[in-house]
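Comment thread on ticket #2218

A.B. wrote:
> Attaching the input chain for the structure job we discussed in standup.
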Amino acid sequence: MATELKSRVQEQVRKLVVGRDEEVELLLICFLARGHTLIEGVPGVSKTLLARAFSRCFGLELHRIQFTPDMIPMDMVGGFVFNIENRVFEFRKGPVFTNVVLADEINRAPPKVQSALLEAMQERQVTVEGHTEQLPDPFMVIATQNPIEFQGVYPLPEGQLDRFLMKIELQYPDLKTESDIMVRNLEDMNPDVIQVVLGPDEIPQVFKEVQRVKISAEIVDYVSRVAQETRIDKRLSLGVSPRSAVHLIHGAQANAYLEGRDFVVPDDIKKISYRVLGHRVKLNQSALLSGMASDPAEVVKDILARVRPPR
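C.D. wrote:
> Ran it. Output below, let me know if you need it in another format.
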């Protein structure tokens, strides 16, 4: 079942979204690792449609939250409202109370909203005026953002980026894929064509199976050495956190599970490392000005190339 899960999800998403099989696989790894995903791309490359199609494969409830500069935390988490009949204040849940939160254009929101989302992502709960409410299980945030070159957007703070297990960049489609997209849109696309691949009642068992994927001491040491290298590399002013290493391990477990293995190998780490770590490191100014580095993900790839994996 595990080896077929990836192809079945990709097959269903393909009914709505063309040419995004790799991105679907990465979303699936994040979901099985119980992490959150940040999707970056210019407007119109199917970021929102991809998230909707993916959530339908699991029969999960999805709420889309459009982030705007004038948004307040209550718009997302909810708050207390006065019930005239009972003459008491009651907590009314906001749209974050769902299985999949589609945080659209997350880098347009003000800091207070970002802070409220941090608690939901990390603790899987929200707190309003001392009142705490648990979020549904499973819970996943799929956030989309436009590149920082666009007007009205701001770089996400490092603390928030560190909560996303993976960052996925959606590039423009190739010529054939773009033609297929235009042909597909000549007809009405009904999301109901997507069939449930893994039902909500089956998901907890799959989560347990992923957690049982074995991690050897050698693999743990390998990930630790990679993390240490990001902290001493002269091209970087900010290395990865211990949370990043944990996320990398969890992602590797999910990838091994999808490959039909009950143990992690170095290739599982290498496959996802730059997507898990690339958005968490920060280039220093001297490296940028001197041309030593221009892409944090490429630095992570260089580090992976020089750190010897276990045999």
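A.B. wrote:
> Thanks. Noting for the ticket: Residues 242-258 form the longest helix (17 residues).
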